[in-house]
Amino acid sequence: MSKLTHRRTKKVSKFEKIKDVALKMNENEKRKSDAKKKEKQKKPKGYRARKAGVVTFWVMLVLMFLIVVVNSGGGKKQTEAMVLNEPTTSKAVSTEAVEFSKDFLSKYFTWNLDKLDQNDRDATLSYFVSKDIVDQIGRITGKTWHSTLKRDAVLLKEAQDLGDNKSILTYQVNITYDKTLAAIEKEKSALGENGEDTYSVENLSPDSMDVVVNEQGIVKRITKKKFVTIHLYYDADQNRFVIYQIPSFTYFEDTPNTSGPEMETDNLRTVVGNETNAVKDFLNTFFEAYANDSSEKLSYLFDDERRQSGLNKTMEFVTVKNVTVYEGRNEKEKVVSATVIFAEPDTGIEYSSNYQIVVAEKQDRFVVKHLNSKKYIDDMLNDAEQTADKTDVDSSEDNKKGDEVEKEQEEQSTEE
């Protein structure tokens, strides 16, 4: 075979191989295409819709998550804004306003005639009052009495909010007046001439509280109870308080208080008879130990994990009186209200104290479960109330069932 013929044969064989590969690739593509068509034909109806629904669900879920995250951050700011915008107590009746007024009154009703400098007094009061009343408010006309008003002798009686950052604050002030030495000497001279008091204590006005007289019967110190009204304004621009009118006197009628809250023991059932005697005897033992014994000894009388400490001999036990015994949670428990008399050790002055004690029987003796525990008594009353409500419901259901049975019996009797 010639070289030319050999080359041609070799080229033909390569061409055939390429052709076979191309045919096989074409057949593979055709088979894949047929397989996809068959797979599509096998898929149930609505498959695409379900697939689209799944995609939509996840998209919506992601969007909701993003909305929650955004709102969480914004919600915090919104909450803070709401707190800041909440209506607050007027500054004109705030604690700061009350304290400011007390400072003013203590200085307004305090002066010493022997050391009085009117300019200094005006300068002191000018810090508290508006400019137009400074020249009037600090004038002292009397020449007989020094005056002192301690800050703790100023008591707020009434606060009236006028709006527009204004208020009227009414105080009780207990002012102490001390007579000048010159005035006392003048009265002594008058006593020497006629031998009689020039100022009788019996003639003092009803607002007089503490009165001190010297050996000649001359009043040298007197404490007066007055009621004073302050007109106050809060200047928001200057961020300060100002008294814009001269204080005026008023009066409050001091009458006995007839009101009071309901006591925790008011809704408990009282125990009477011999049961109370043992409880009373235990209270005398307990409170004597409560006044004198250490915490270790008291632990024997306390059924309480906290092991309450006693008075550590700071008061002396005298007696227990006005004992009222109430039912507790069960037959072994009692709630006791009692007045206990203690004496101050060094002076012997007696004081009355009221205690509410939860006493329980434990191993043939009494122990104190709680001392002045309002929460325990409230919880006990709430439990009793819930039990009573449940009993009423059960009773109502039983009555209803009884009525139904009775009605059925009547219907059967009628049919017969």
Write the layout of secondary structure elements.
Layout: H1 3-42, H2 47-85, H3 95-108, H4 118-126, H5 134-137, E1 145-148, E2 154-163, E3 166-179, H6 181-194, E4 208-213, E5 219-235, E6 240-243, E7 248-250, H7 275-292, H8 295-298, E8 316-327, E9 333-343, E10 350-361, E11 366-371, H9 374-415
Antiparallel strand pairs: 1-3, 2-3, 3-5, 4-5, 5-6, 5-7, 8-9, 9-10, 10-11
Helix content: 40-55%
Give the CATH class of the largest domain: Alpha Beta
Q: State which percent range the strand residues make up.
A: 15-25%
* Total strands: 11
Taken from the alpha-carbon principal axes, the silhouette is flat
- What is the total domain count? 4
For this structure, the CATH topology of the largest domain is: Nuclear Transport Factor 2, Chain: A
Biased composition (Basic residues): 33-45
Biased composition (Basic and acidic residues): 23-32, 387-404
Biased composition (Acidic residues): 405-416
InterPro entries: TcpC (IPR024735), TcpC_C (IPR035628)
Provide a compact summary of the structure.
The chain has helices at residues 3-42, 47-85, 95-108, 118-126, 134-137, 181-194, 275-292, 295-298, 374-415, and strands spanning 145-148, 154-163, 166-179, 208-213, 219-235, 240-243, 248-250, 316-327, 333-343, 350-361, 366-371.
Could you describe the 3D structure shown?
With 416 residues, the protein is of the alpha+beta class. The termini are far apart. Helices cover 44% and strands 24% of the residues. Strands 1, 2, 3, 4, 5, 6 and 7 form a seven-stranded antiparallel sheet that branches. The chain has a four-stranded antiparallel sheet with strand order 8-9-10-11, sandwiched between helices. About 3% of the residues have low confidence. It folds into four domains: 40 residues; 34 residues; 160 residues, Nuclear Transport Factor 2, Chain: A; 109 residues, Nuclear Transport Factor 2, Chain: A, CATH 3.10.450. Keywords: Membrane, Transmembrane, Transmembrane helix.
